[in-house]
Amino acid sequence: MTRPRPESRPLDRRTLLHAALGTAAVAVLGGALTADASGLRPGPSGVLRIATGEPTAFYEAFGRLLTAELESAYPRLNCRVRTTAGSLTNIELLRDRRADLGLVLTDTALAAQGTDLLPRPVPLRAIGRVYETYLQFVVRADSPVREVADLAGHPVSLGATGSGAAVLGARILHAAGLTPGTDVPVLHLPLADAAEAMRAGSVDALIVAGGVPLPTLSDLDERPGLRFLPLAGLLPRLGGREGRAGSGLEEVSLPQGAYRSAGGVATIGVSNLLVCRPDLPHAVAEALTRLLVLRASALVPDNAVGTQFLDVGSLIGTGGIALHPGAAEAYRTLHG
After folding, report:
1. pLDDT confidence of 239, banded at 50, 70, 90?
2. Which CATH architecture has domain 134-271?
3. What span, in angstroms and rounded, lies between the C-alpha atoms of 238 and 131?
4. Are 6 and 255 in contact (CB under 8 A)?
5. β-strand partners of 104
6. What is the location of CATH 3.40.190.10 in the chain?
7. Which tens digit of pLDDT belongs to each residue from 16-57?
8. Does residue 220 carry a pLDDT above 60?
9. Which side of the chain, N or C, has fewer Cβ within a 10 Å radius?
10. pTM: predicted TM-score of the whole model, two decimal places
């Protein structure tokens, strides 16, 4: 099957960035990375723990690619990928000093700065906005449910406890006028379990944040068949664009051909950040940033289609989460 082309809006951002950046700046930065790897500058060393997401899902795939590139560029660095439930768990691991880097939804990272999501705010710094994923809220193709408000009385899996999708999924139900656990029976299942529950008929809907197509959803789309619920109309109640500044939420359309009948459905794009604690060593943050820019094409999982970032203009767009000083220095170097 021919893979659908990425959406025009992110490609336009990339094109504009590369025109502004120019090849000279990339060459300068590329020389710095080569020097690090050749031993002229030894670069970072030690253990770097990266909290990702569920096994076989997008976060985990990105983490594996990042690990391979880091260890190739910096042989003294030992990277360890940790699979987790997702964004919220990753923030807790950073807070408890059990991870050094974490992949998180921007919306969840902001909520961790000062809401009732966690007992105390967790200070975070961003290495960059690495890509955008799609919120994919699906029901079986033969379901009478046409929009989120129709889910009253229907069991829904909002994602594993500790995932960003679970946090945002509950907000989506509220935005549609539904109270989770009262109007809608809610389960918190890992994606693979949620898919089996949908096949068995014990859940009627599930939500996931990820690239497209997600293999698990592709399998469900073949059997029993899926319908993708439109979500963009709920954006004003979620803090996207018209609401909370820097939320990382925006309207996007599912790409044609990603799934059998999802093309053009207006859903919500969620930007994803690579974050760390404020005390991550300056040199590590700087090296990470250089690698994100220079090895961008190697850091997009093969099955991902649609909105992608990983260029300087978008990497620095981290919303309400401030850049780590080491990352900011690397970006300044890029821009001359």
Report:
1. low
2. 3-Layer(aba) Sandwich (3.40)
3. 20
4. yes
5. 273
6. 8-132+272-335, 134-271
7. 223 333 332 333 333 334 334 434 456 788 999 999 999 878
8. yes
9. N
10. 0.82
Q: Are 271 and 248 in contact (CB under 8 A)?
A: yes
| CATH 3.40.190.10 correct for 8-132+272-335 | yes
The model's pLDDT over 76-108, given as tens digits with 9 standing for 90+, comes to 999 999 999 999 999 999 999 999 999 999 999
User: CA-to-CA distance for 25 and 23, rounded, in angstroms?
Assistant: 6
Give the per-residue pLDDT at 308.
66
Query: So what's the pLDDT on residue 171?
Result: 93
41/127 Cα distance (integer angstroms): 21
Q: Tell me the pLDDT tens digit for each residue of 262-288.
A: 989 999 999 999 999 999 999 999 999
Tracing tokens 């902001």 back to the chain, one arrives at 110
Report the alpha-carbon distance of residue 166 to residue 223 in Å, rounded: 24
Average pLDDT, the chain: 84
Measured on CA atoms in the order 103, 157, 235, 217, is the torsion positive or negative? positive
At 56 the pLDDT is 75
CA distances from 172 to 136, 157, 161 (A): 12, 13, 16
